[in-house]
Amino acid sequence: MNPLRILLVEDHDESRLALDRLLRMSGHSAALAASAAEARSLTASEPFQILLIDLGLPDGSGIDLLRDLRSNSNAPALALTAFGEEWFASSCVEAGFCGWLVKPVVFDDLLLAIDSAVRGTTPPLLAAPPSPHSFGV
Are 39 and 9 in contact (CB under 8 A)? Predict the structure, then answer.
């Protein structure tokens, strides 16, 4: 996979920094946002190839954020969420997410979903049980 410029929106500091470190180790670069407001500001000034958005943000929902970001970005978006219920997946798809991953995220699954989304294929909707390779974001 070619290096990507990624917008990572995650309000949990440790998770955001750990994900950033893992993405960089995989050859990508990420702009980090801890809130919907920060994400809006970043997308207004810089293009991204993919959006990774936590759905539970301190200043709004990731679903509403993605709807807002569509005025500045048509990049594929993946949701990061603690909710694994099937009805929630349909809400994500309706909002414009091409996939979602349930926390704790298995990093290899995240990379697979990113690759699929960037290629324009439908990434799997992944509900990952905790494993030794899970990353608790």
Answer: yes
